[in-house]
């Protein structure tokens, strides 16, 4: 997996070196190209948050969906420490499972996506809207173990895959609560404000899934859904031995597509958009790229589904100037001024430290004091007689 | 008599100073039995802090003190402990002087009645002698200063102490006979908390008695004097309220203080009867029941005035007790004020029927208050009913105490004029019953 990359590029680098010997300027240009490729995406680590939101035996396929994506993502290099897997129910050890300790994603029990190395981070009743949002935003109680945290930074590419039962604008969790598309969009905006992702790929396989990405407004998000608003996502095939549908159509074809990918493949997102056309999926898959800065043509599948370490070996020195990657800075200079404050700058620390001087104390008005003491003196003299006046003056 | 009084004062001041320095001060200051929303020290500090920030202290629902208290504490807030100790001492001294004068009046009246042969022949043991009356003022001062309720109230820096001292000065002025001062202090006391308004009747009766004006509805001099006193009282009240307006240039204090006392919006538990009832009440009925409860305080004045018109100071005592029991936010400081008067009627001891049970009830309830509060609020194993049960029992104990004293007083008066050994028509021994 990761070893293939330097191997492939080593060959490429060797070829470049050979060409270097021949013609300099061309070589310099070739090396620049490679350096360009090096900086193409801008992420340094990959995370995946895979969520299955339904429980009960007849929702076997949602667990199988999630585990299939988990399998692919792990195969392509993302380690368990960088995957947050949330399964709302335990199908492998469900009493109704005729083949215990297995979850099959293909009929005739061809592909078991469960196994010894499946690490479920949030299981059963821990999969709630609150926990999901807390994972995304990072606002987690201090006692949460690392395996349950999304410790991404602003160079992380995050894949978020959700599956379950949904409707127009919501996704059902555990048959008792929902997350709305607005909440999800706000959570992603929080992530953006807190610099918790570089780019985000959001895939959802539910009925009317496209409604869930309608409300996104944060930059660098690409979204895919298995069906448009008003359409249902259908399941693929029942297995008569197990008795339930094993997979949803969209994820089945995505899984088929992903099985062709290896860590060095250059397949880009446009191919992923073509997966599962209407003839195969019955529903119309949708995608949204308007918030994404790069052209989907240039986005590799492995940018999100794999953890591809960029290792380029060369004996030449490459000077890195500003334009070496043709990499558009995220924020063109003129936009910097209107950029909202960074998180740390949002607290007016300078104002807090240099407190305003204490306001002048309140004093009772002169008229009041005068009146009160005049009254007291009048009472005194009325009681004790005027003759005391001469003692005062 | 000055020396023992000074000793008592010193002892009281020491006790208070010791408690101020101990860790109990904070604990006591937070107790709901001692600090009510009307007189808690925390709220005074909050109000003054708001004032320093340029906001009217009446703008929230925190501060319910009168502007004169604002004025007083604006300058004295650093010496708050000293102020409260001095207030307690002043109250005790005022009560001492008042009861001293009152004893002289009682003794004079008794002498007059004996000479006029108004007493039955066999009541020698009921007559009060100067010997036994000699120590009563000191006992009153002692009862007030060393009463645990007063000490707790002082340590909590509850402004109830200031209200008590104004009432004590009012009593002193009334007993000394100065109608003007009495009216001024009564106006101050009413201005502070609304209920001393009911003390107008006993003060008037006392002053009429002192001027030897008979209390007949047709008598012109009676109405003249009443009008004079009432106008003095009302004028001083109006002057004080208008003066308070000029402190903050707003009438905000009227709904905050008097509106609050009358409409009882804050239902924090206390030793009174309002909170639980209104916590359970539907909003639809709350206005009606607020009116009923408030009328209950003022209601007993007229019947008591009719019954006790010859004995206005006892009437004042009973009225003070009724205010302490039925007011909207009572605290133990209010209870301490009327309890200070109990030595004045120690000669009624032989007629008190339930004094043992009632004192036990009052003592036990005082101890159970913090226990059940802890169980309700902190341990969570009780609920408000438990605390309210103790409140109810405490108030029932107080009511029975007052009615016991009332009955004993009337019984003694009856025996004085009709003799100790009452017989019925057929010669058998008769029992006196309160109808």
From TrEMBL, chain A:
Keywords: GPI-anchor biosynthesis, Membrane, Signal, Transmembrane, Transmembrane helix. PANTHER family: GPI-ANCHOR TRANSAMIDASE. Belongs to the peptidase C13 family. The keyword Signal applies. The keyword tRNA processing does not apply. It comes from the Eukaryota. This is GPI-anchor transamidase. InterPro entries: GPI_transamidase, Peptidase_C13. GO terms for cellular component: GPI-anchor transamidase complex. GO terms for molecular function: GPI-anchor transamidase activity. The gene is Pigk. GO terms for biological process: attachment of GPI anchor to protein; GPI anchor biosynthetic process; proteolysis. Pathway: Glycolipid biosynthesis; glycosylphosphatidylinositol-anchor biosynthesis. The chain crosses the membrane at residues 362-381. The active site is at residues 165, 207. Residues 1-28 form the signal peptide. Heteropentamer. Part of the GPI-anchor transamidase complex, consisting of PIGK, PIGT, PIGS, PIGU and GAA1. Interacts with GPAA1. Interacts with PIGT; this interaction, via a disulfide link, stabilizes the expression of GAA1 and PIGK and links them to PIGS.
TrEMBL record, chain B:
The keyword Chaperone does not apply. It is a multi-pass membrane protein. It is found in: Endoplasmic reticulum membrane. Keywords: Endoplasmic reticulum, GPI-anchor biosynthesis, Membrane, Signal, Transmembrane, Transmembrane helix. This is PIGU protein. It comes from Dicrurus megarhynchus. Residues 1-17 form the signal peptide. It comes from the Eukaryota. The keyword Membrane applies. One of its GO terms (cellular component) is GPI-anchor transamidase complex. GO terms for biological process: attachment of GPI anchor to protein; GPI anchor biosynthetic process.
């Amino acid at each position: 997996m990761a070893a293939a990359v330097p191997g492939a590029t080593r060959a490429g680098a060797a070829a470049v070196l050979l060409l270097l010997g021949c013609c300099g300027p061309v070589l310099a240009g070739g090396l620049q190209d490679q350096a360009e490729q090096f900086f193409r995406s801008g992420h340094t680590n990959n995370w995946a948050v895979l969520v299955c939101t339904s429980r009960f035996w007849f929702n076997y396929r949602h667990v199988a969906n999630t585990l299939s994506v988990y399998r692919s993502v792990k195969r392509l290099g993302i380690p368990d420490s960088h995957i947050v897997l949330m399964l709302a129910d335990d199908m492998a050890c469900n009493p109704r499972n005729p083949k215990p300790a297995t979850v099959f994603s293909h009929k005739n029990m061809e592909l078991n996506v469960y196994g010894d190395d499946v690490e479920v981070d949030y299981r059963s009743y821990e999969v709630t809207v609150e926990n999901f949002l807390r994972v995304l935003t990072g606002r987690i109680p201090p006692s949460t173990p690392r395996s349950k945290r999304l410790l991404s930074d602003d160079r992380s590419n995050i894949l978020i895959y959700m599956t379950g039962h949904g409707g127009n604008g919501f996704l059902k969790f555990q048959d008792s609560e929902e997350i709305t598309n607005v909440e999800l969009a706000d959570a992603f905006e929080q992530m953006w404000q807190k610099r918790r992702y570089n780019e985000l790929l959001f895939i959802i396989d539910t009925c009317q899934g496209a409604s869930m990405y309608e409300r996104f407004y944060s930059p660098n998000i690409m979204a895919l859904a298995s069906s448009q608003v008003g359409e249902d996502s259908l399941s693929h095939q029942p297995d008569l031995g197990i008795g339930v549908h094993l997979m949803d159509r969209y994820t089945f074809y995505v899984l088929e597509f992903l099985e062709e990918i290896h860590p060095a493949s250059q397949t880009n997102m446009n191919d992923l958009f073509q997966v599962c056309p209407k003839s195969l999926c019955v529903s119309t898959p949708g995608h949204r790229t308007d918030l994404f800065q790069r052209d989907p043509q240039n986005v590799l599948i492995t940018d999100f589904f794999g953890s591809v370490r960029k290792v380029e070996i060369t004996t030449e020195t490459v000077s890195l100037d500003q334009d070496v990657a043709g990499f558009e800075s995220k924020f063109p200079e003129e936009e910097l001024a209107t950029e909202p404050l960074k998180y740390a700058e949002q607290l007016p620390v300078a104002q807090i430290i240099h407190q305003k001087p204490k306001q002048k104390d309140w004093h009772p008005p002169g008229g009041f004091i005068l009146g009160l003491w005049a009254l007291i003196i009048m009472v005194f003299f009325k009681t004790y007689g005027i003759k005391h006046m001469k003692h005062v003056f | 008599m000055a020396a023992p009084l000074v000793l008592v004062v010193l002892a009281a001041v020491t006790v208070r100073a010791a408690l101020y320095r101990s860790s109990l001060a904070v604990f006591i200051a937070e107790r709901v039995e001692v600090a009510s929303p009307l007189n808690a020290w925390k709220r005074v500090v909050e109000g003054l802090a708001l004032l320093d920030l340029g906001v009217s202290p009446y703008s929230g629902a925190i501060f319910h003190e009168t502007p004169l208290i604002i004025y007083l504490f604006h300058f004295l807030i650093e010496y708050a402990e000293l102020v409260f100790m001095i207030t307690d001492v002043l109250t005790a001294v005022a009560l001492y002087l008042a009861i001293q004068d009152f004893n002289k009046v009682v003794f004079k009246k008794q002498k007059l009645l004996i000479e006029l042969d108004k007493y039955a022949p066999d009541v020698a043991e009921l007559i009060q002698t100067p010997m036994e009356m000699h120590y009563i003022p000191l006992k009153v001062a002692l009862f007030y200063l060393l009463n645990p309720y007063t000490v707790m109230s002082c340590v909590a820096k509850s402004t109830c102490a200031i209200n008590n001292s104004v009432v004590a000065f009012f009593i002193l002025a009334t007993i000394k006979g100065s109608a003007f001062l009495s009216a001024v202090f009564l106006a101050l006391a009413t201005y502070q908390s609304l209920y001393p308004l009911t003390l107008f009747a006993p003060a008037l009766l006392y002053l009429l008695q002192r001027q030897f004006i008979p209390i007949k509805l047709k008598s012109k001099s009676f109405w003249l004097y009443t009008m004079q006193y009432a106008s003095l009282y009302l004028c001083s009240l109006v002057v004080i309220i208008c003066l308070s307006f000029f402190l903050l240039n707003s009438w905000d204090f009227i709904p905050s203080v008097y509106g609050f006392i009358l409409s009882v919006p804050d239902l924090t538990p206390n030793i009174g009867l309002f909170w639980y009832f209104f916590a359970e009440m539907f909003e639809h009925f709350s206005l009606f029941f607020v009116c009923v409860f408030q009328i209950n305080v003022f209601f007993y004045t007229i019947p008591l005035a009719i019954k006790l018109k010859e004995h206005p100071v006892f009437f004042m005592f009973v009225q003070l007790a009724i205010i302490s029991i039925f007011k909207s936010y009572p605290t133990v400081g209010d209870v301490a004020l009327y309890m200070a008067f109990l030595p004045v009627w120690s000669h009624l001891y032989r007629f008190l029927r339930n004094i043992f049970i009632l004192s036990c009830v009052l003592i036990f309830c005082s101890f159970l208050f913090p226990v059940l509060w802890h169980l309700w609020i902190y341990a969570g194993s009780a609920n408000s009913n438990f605390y309210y049960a103790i409140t109810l029992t405490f108030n029932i104990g107080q009511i029975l105490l007052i009615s016991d004293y009332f009955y004993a007083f009337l019984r003694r008066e009856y025996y004085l004029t009709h003799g100790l050994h009452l017989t019925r028509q057929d010669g058998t021994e008769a029992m006196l019953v309160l109808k």
